[in-house]
Amino acid sequence: MKRTITSRRLAAVGIAGALALVAAGCTSNDPQQTSNDSSAAPKAASDNDAPGDKVTIGFSGPAADHGWLAAINSSAQAEAKKYSDIDFKAVEGTNDASQQIAQIETFINDKVDAIVLLPTDGAALTEVATKAMNAGIPVVNVDREFSSPFAARTTILGDNYGMGVSAGTYACKVVKDKKLSNPVIAEIAGIDSLPLTQDRSKGFADALKACGQTVDNRVAAQFTVESGEKEASNLLQAAKKIDILWNHDDDQGVGVMAALDQANRHEMAFIGGAGSANAMRWIKEGKMEATVLYPPTQAADGIKLARLLAQDKGLSDLVQVEVPKRVVLNAPVVTKENVDKYLPLGFES
């Protein structure tokens, strides 16, 4: 039976999760397919998308108390619906680590084929995730990393440092394009105690060094609309002129935009972060310069990879026959020139 074979194989993967993947030259999961058939037309989609063995995927995500987090849950649900061979078992989103541990315990007891998990606290969920791996259930860790490499078969991450680098690199472009001398650059960060905020700020500062710039004014908000408006108002009072403003999060950016409107301060190039639909609409309207994506599709990608793992498949676009151990998504800059490309991925704040 598929379940028995897959479980036995994946139990071994869980025990040896930190080992490097074995390289190989096969590019297809279909042993009958050959590469020398010149008459075959190129395919737009991978053979992996064809229906395979029915698999049950358990999903545990965050409480939807933030636009980006809500998009994590909805994108996972939407992706699972695309596949007739996925039995999708989603539990209620939570910010309670104890509740999420209980959810994963239930998935283990139910013997699901794979688990996709955005942990409310990576360290707190490490033990139960490792338990799932040792039970032969591959775990796909999304966004917040576990504290052990044995707790996940695959980890999918956004690039927080890369977000800062993208924002800073674009800020340097604005300085050059507008021929700004002694520009005033401001930053509205998220929660300063979080490593993700620290990574974003470091990436921004590092990228600004390339054009000889630094952050002149900085405040930190709480990833909420209310805090964004409050901290932006404080910033505007302290800085009578701002040439470039980078706000880490488009949800709190709703409040930032409200503060800018109230103060009638739109002299600066306003750069956002995360990639909300409303930020992209502001870009189209000319109210905002750009935003940097932190993809809310991470869990959707997790569903796709969990399906491949449970069906004992790899990525057909890679020479490597196994699903990668770690995937870090890009942090592109969305501007007026490319906003239509990214708008379908935008989430509502």
TrEMBL record:
It comes from the Bacteria. The keyword tRNA-binding does not apply. One of its GO terms (cellular component) is cell envelope. This is Substrate-binding domain-containing protein. SUPFAM superfamilies: Periplasmic binding protein-like I (SSF53822). Its main location: other. Residues 28-57 are annotated as: Disordered. The lineage of its organism: Bacteria, Bacillati, Actinomycetota, Actinomycetes, Micrococcales. It is found in: Cell envelope. Residues 28-39 have a biased composition (Polar residues). Residues 1-23 form the signal peptide. Residues 57-312 form the Periplasmic binding protein domain. Keywords: Signal. Belongs to the bacterial solute-binding protein 2 family. Coiled coil: none annotated. It holds the Pfam family Peripla_BP_4. InterPro entries: Peripla_BP_I, SBP_2_dom. One of its GO terms (molecular function) is carbohydrate binding.
